[in-house]
Amino acid sequence: MARETPVGMIGLGLMGSALSARLIDAGVGVIGFDVDAAKSDGLRASGAEFAAFAADVAVRCRTIVIAVYDAAQVKGLLPDLANGALPPLVICTTTCAPGEIKAIAEFAARANLGFIEAPISGTSAEVRTGTATALVAGDADIIASAATTLDILCPQRINVGAIGNASRTKLAINLILQINRAALAEGLALAEALGLDGAAFLAAARQSAAYSAVMDSKGPKMLARDFSPQSHIAQTLKDAELILQEAARHSLPLPLTSAQAELLRATIALKGPDSDSAAVIEAIRAGRDRDKEPS
């Protein structure tokens, strides 16, 4: 049976839907909102409710999880959430630039909204199984008050301190993850070009010094050309651009990330923005195919 006080979920894309499913499985009522009303279908089918406006979620929920695309969308939501008689506690899972999330948290404080920064490291599939990791930042008392909900959303989490540190940590982690993914794509493409069986090569790589967890999550998808999304490649590019912007602010050149961002742009041109991030291998395969074309 669902708890009397439901949790609000604003943003019902891959991540918001996975987080909602965890709450529902734990017997917690969910009231969802998304600007795309079509995304409510899956939520309703699972027994949750769908609100017509974000402000309606704030009226009925004491805790609200935000899982939208970017900081601009988060900023646009906060005034509606702050207008209720009893402002809710907000858990923001959206990856933002550190300066953006700090400004958002300052607005939340002025509006008497409890605010927790909690971007998630992991795909929607990993969130669904409870193996993703939330990077949590904010006031310790506010975080403690949301512990029950956080335990359901992300059993694995790391407290990284003050607001802004979660975004800083997430961006640096994403840099490594994205380059690992691109390196895997190049390695698989090379193995294919050399005439090796892709599945046999991936199995060998998993047992080698080159192993990374991305081989488990993305390797089979790359081999099968299965680009059904666990994460959208447009979101991957958005994060890469945030990484490069933050690096530029600190006069830090990132040559690998710069090259990787170009690879993401090429992939989106080939496979579209909603493809899984594993599709990055197609930009490499396409380059080989172009080079083989007769002049």
Strand content: 5-15%
**Apparent shape:** globular
The percent of residues in helical segments reads 55-70%
* Number of H/I helices: 15
The biggest sheet, with number of strands, parallel, antiparallel or mixed sense and barrel status, is: 6 strands, parallel
- Which consecutive residue ranges, at least 5 long each, have pLDDT under 50? none
Number of strands: 9
Encode the helix/strand succession as letters: EHEHEHEHEHEEHEHHEHHHHHHH
The strand line-up of the biggest sheet is: 3-2-1-4-5-6
**What structural class do you assign from the helix and strand content?**
alpha/beta
Radius of gyration: 20 Å
Fold blueprint:
Elements: E1 7-10, H1 14-25, E2 30-33, H2 40-45, E3 49-50, H3 54-60, E4 63-66, H4 71-82, E5 89-92, H5 98-110, E6 114-117, E7 120-121, H6 124-129, E8 133-137, H7 140-145, H8 147-153, E9 156-161, H9 165-193, H10 198-206, H11 214-217, H12 219-224, H13 233-249, H14 255-271, H15 280-292
Parallel strand pairs: 1-2, 1-4, 2-3, 4-5, 5-6, 8-9
Antiparallel strand pairs: 7-8
Helix pairs in contact: 3-4, 4-5, 9-13, 9-14, 9-15, 13-14, 14-15
Q: Brief description of this entry?
A:
The chain has 295 residues and is α/β, with parallel strands linked by helices. The protein contains 15 helices and 9 strands. It has a 6-stranded parallel β-sheet, with helices on both faces. The protein has a 3-stranded mixed β-sheet with strand order 7-8-9, covered by helices on one side.
